[in-house]
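Here is one chain, start to finish.
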Amino acid sequence: MSQSADGLHGAGHTAEGPAPPAAVEQLHAVRLMVNGAAHTLALEPRHTLLDTLRADLELTGTKKVCDMGDCGACTVLVDGRAMYSCLLLAIECQGREITTIEGLARDGELDPVQRAFVEADAFQCGFCTPGQIMSLRALLNETAAPSEADIMRAVTGNLCRCGAYVNILKAGRRAAELAAAPREAGSPGETLPAGEAR
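Its structure:
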């Protein structure tokens, strides 16, 4: 505590009197549609989608690594397109369909991209795998028969520190094959839309 000409002042006080309270951001009701389920959350406007998914909804498959849009580990689908959730504010995502790695499997059956990663052994530590899978899922949403260049471009924004890129590309090719092939549960010759299970 320090002495001034007009008396004592220290933490929480100034020479002019009590310090103003620290600014507290107002909470807003934010309604998000995540993996087909509606959630209404009380959030500060500065809350990112990444932090909301991990801390508020406990969907920890979306990884927090660089937190600045460099690594791609936090990639999710927003209206079917791959986006870095660390660069999106949750409040901006109202009215949009958000899909995380947890939302890809349907009725206990893995998405073709998930199956392809297992078949191709396209991971080592696995930390970047959810983001890689979401980027390739977005590619297949847009392009049913992607080229090698399309697959490479899709995962360009996803870093793999283990260097499993050869098998990641192999998984991308295999995912396209699996997504295009008729499901066993479908009629002969019938092809279900990518990522859709009966």
